[in-house]
Amino acid sequence: MNPLRWRFRAQFLLGFLVCAALLGYAIFLQLKMGLEPCPLCIFQRIAFAALALLFLIGALHGPRDPAGRKTYGVLAFIAAAVGIGIAGRHVYVQLLPQDMGSSCGPPLSFLSETMGPFEVFRTVLTGTGNCGNIDWQFLGLTMPMWSLVWFAALAVWALVTAFRARRRH
User: Which residues cross the membrane (predicted)?
Assistant: First the structure.
């Protein structure tokens, strides 16, 4: 049973389920294991949620025309690319030596109370708090590294699903 042979709806539903599982695991780690997310983690969650939403809408709509499938694929790719950028920045911050300021500043709640949305976004991405801390690893990769892997895999999945030639029934 080759997933690449599944229909568009099933493939996009799988993308949604993967995103939902990743978000669920992040929330589990936060609530049950006490791992507090940093601002860059929150932005990665937002990117996963946006990607999940696009996968779900694409699966529910299930366009029959190639242009519709390609539109959903490109939109999902863009959401994944944003996630790649955020996760990549987080990995960079984590890999910086501690003495070089590998942190991301005050908590997101404080930033949002004292700054406008664009200033908050810019401040968080400049990496000034606890984003440099490594609280969790699996197979030698940190959570942002795994996020980067998953965003890249889901970006490829969205494009392959959307641009793959389909047989007529």
Answer: 12-30, 42-60, 72-92, 145-163
Q: Assign 162 to helix, strand or coil.
A: helix
How sure is the predictor about 132, in pLDDT bands with cuts at 50, 70 and 90?
low
Hey, what are 78's tokens?
């863009």
DSSP 11-67: HHHHHHHHHHHHHHHHHHHHHHH--PPPHHHHHHHHHHHHHHHHHHHHHHH--SSHH
Query: Does any domain span residue 8?
Result: yes
How far is Cα 103 from Cα 95, in angstroms, rounded to an integer? Answer: 11
3-state SS, residue 142: strand
Residue 46: both structure tokens together: 């937002």
- Considering the domain boundaries, does residue 114 fall inside one? yes
Whether the pTM exceeds 0.85: the reply is no
Q: What pLDDT, in 10s, does the model give residues 143-158? A: 889 999 999 999 999 9
The closest of 9, 15, 13 to 62, measured between CA atoms, is 9
Number of separate domains in the chain = 1
Using an 8 Å Cβ cutoff, are 123 and 105 in contact? yes
DSSP SS3 for 126? coil
The tokens for 29 are: 């780690």
**Residue 90's CATH number:** 1.20.1550.10
